[in-house]
Amino acid sequence: MSSLRSSFEAARARNSALLVGYLPAGFPSVDGCIAAAVAMVESGVDVIEIGLPYSDPVMDGPVIQEAVEHALQAGVRIADVFATVAVVAKTGAPTLVMTYWNPVERYGVERFAQDLAAAGGAGVITPDLTPEESGAWTAAAQAAGLETVFLVAPSSPVERIDKVAEVTTGFIYAASTMGVTGARASVGVRAHELVDRIRARSTSPVAVGLGVSAPDQAREVAAYADGVIVGSAFIRLLIDAETEADGTRAVAELAGELAIATHQPR
Fold first, then answer.
1. Catalytic residue, candidates 49, 80, 147, 220
2. Rounded Cα–Cα distance for residues 96 and 19 (Å)
3. pLDDT at site 58
4. Which of these, 66, 82, 102, 65, lies nearest to 30 by C-alpha position?
């Protein structure tokens, strides 16, 4: 069993959820991203997602778009993503890359999978790759020992949920709302309903993302999902910080608060 799946199994045995944190590579700098991600793990984040900066992030809201644009302007490339993964993975936390499909295809599907695995990556989240068109990727990921993660949304019919469950080997990413990423005042009941729909058709772990930013929201989601995904809230702290060190400290503090809320037994 992979480190990712074993982490979810351990959480289930404790009757609690995992906290998944997202940061885009290269923001506020390559070293700054690494420092923040490591601090997140040290403060209780269980799984790290490293975003691959892309020029057309259609799923991302304004906070992530701002960070990604900064990284791209600074010249961050795929090699920097792998370098970030290599350092963060040494913490022992399963470290995934979240990427749109075009960069993977341009880099070379098999090469991307092999290079990520060599860096210690645990898997890849592909938000815009449909399961029906994922054959080349799932084959390359399996050959490299990487987990695959696909998304479902509140609008997904049962046929799509079944197909996602068929090709997902890591966890199913349940988008809490129809929209882009970003912190919200509430997660909403549709996320719970979506998790219930997925659970009725799959035994794979289910993690909820899009909108979680505060401990009370994390506690709410952790009561019914296997994982709680937080991204924009961490990035907002890095954007607002006067220095990278201040941002890292702020991120670590929020991570600790979210971890306490997420890890509470159900």
1. 49
2. 13
3. 75
4. 82
Return the H-helix or E-strand segment holding 23: strand 18-24
For residue 120, the domain's CATH number is: 3.20.20.70
The C-alpha angle 104, 135, 23, rounded to 5 degrees, equals: 35
Task: Please state whether the predicted TM-score (pTM) of the whole model is above 0.85.
Answer: yes
Burial class (CB in 10 A: 0-12, 13-18, 19+), 265: exposed
Instruction: Enter the tokens of residue 253.
Output: 């503090």
Query: Does 257 participate in catalysis according to the annotation?
Result: no
Catalytic residue among 42, 56, 60, 257: 60
Q: Estimate to the nearest angstrom the gap between the alpha carbon of 34 and the chain centroid.
A: 15
Name the residue range of residue 71's domain. 3-262
d(CA 147, CA 47): 13
Distance CA 12, CA 34 (A): 28
pLDDT digits (tens, 9 = 90+) for 175-221: 975 444 444 444 557 899 999 999 999 999 999 998 899 999 999 99
Would you state the pLDDT for residue 188?
A: 58
What is the number of structural domains in the chain?
A: 1
The contacts of residue 211 (CB under 8 Å, 6+ apart) are 176, 177, 182, 183, 184, 186, 187, 188, 191, 217
Q: How far apart are CA 76 and CA 130, in angstroms?
A: 26
60 part of the active site: yes
